Amino acid sequence: MSRSSSFHQPAGTLKSLNEARQLLDDARRDLTENRERAQLRPSHTFSPIPGFFPRTAELQAVERALEEEPCFTVLFGASSVGKTALLRQVLCSDKYHVLHFDLRIAGFADLDSLYMSLSQQMEQYFATIAKIEGYGEFEKEAWGFKHDRLNVERRIADNTGMAQIRTSDIARLMELFQSSLLTYRQFVPPSPNSQSSSTASRDSISSQANQSKPKRFRWPWQSKSPSDRARKPNANGSPQDRAQSAEKDVPKPVKKMPVFFIDEAHKLPGLIQSMETMKCLLDSMLVLTKQDRLCHVIHATSDPFYQTWLRQLNVMQHCKIITIGDCSKSDARTFYHERILPRVPERLRHSLSFERLYEAFGGRLVHWQDYITDYVNANGQLESEHLVK
Ligand SMILES: Nc1ncnc2c1ncn2[C@@H]1O[C@H](COP(=O)(O)OP(=O)(O)O)[C@@H](O)[C@H]1O
Ligand SMILES: [Mg+2]
């Protein structure tokens, strides 16, 4: 019977065959993806830039903002002033889990690529958490992002009607992220000596998580008193300071503060043509920060119009602004003696003068670095117009 009916409905048979093939392809792709993911390095930290020169005041401003309640911060400063360098330095700390989007890179061409990257990074974020002992069940949160993405990819491949990423896709993705972060924040891992078998400990994880009272959660390092905070050494702190604080910090909190960092954020309006989608993304970032205090959001930008634009969307009023300028003269002098002069062979040093160079480059470290590279390469034979440049 069924055979004859399939002959009578060749289109239906073809359709179910295609669906079966699609399922097989999906399963194969899942397998490959899982294999690839197992080989990925954890991406929650990035490296500080080599030879970072610690700018005490700026480091403190950024660190202090991150120690406070999760908020939406706009880090503003002229191009090449050192915003990215500063954030890389601070965010590479063990305290943070970073989702990093550098909108300058070619991978971000449009809303579709932004959605894919957001979804992949969120998936990988929870997959990384799942690798921590006792946090295995976060693998499920990671799958949530993957399946949402696969559904979207399937819809786009089917090419029926609305083939592209829509506002609702962004809204759903950000809601998934919000709910996974809530689970992460409320999660109480089993104490290491409570259970030994992994299945038993998983059961205890969920029961503990369920039993945990909905009290106001503070991320581990937020519970410090203001006096503790005042004592906290900065990146310049003496080795003893650091050793003491390392001692105090043992055992280290496993939970890390999530930080959603968008570099060159002024490119967002170009990527997201629809005002509605843009508003949806920004509003959900406000929900993550101001409303739910689930993670920090940092937008770094050198474009003053971006601030105006955020204000027009009623977002700027809820943001903290940190402005980064050039280094002070005394910082520039230290930089010159500690970082610049050692790069110059002794025989070429006599014709360099801090004051003259400062007149030309002020406190923009990258100009000092570029000049000195040229100077050394030219064996000290640079024309003076280099300084004017
Ligand atoms: N604190 C610093 N220490 C050493 N080099 C720095 C520092 N800040 C900036 N630089 C140099 O300046 C360059 C530009 O800095 P970057 O952080 O990319 O600027 P921005 O993000 O503000 O455009 C860096 O690649 C680096 O060479
Ligand atoms: Mg930058």
TrEMBL record:
Organism from which the protein derives: Hericium alpestre
Give the UniProt keywords, A-Z. Coiled coil
Coiled-coil segments:
14-41
In residue numbers, the region (Disordered) covers: 188-250
Record's protein name: AAA+ ATPase domain-containing protein
SUPFAM superfamilies xref list: P-loop containing nucleoside triphosphate hydrolases
Stretches of Low complexity bias are at 193-207
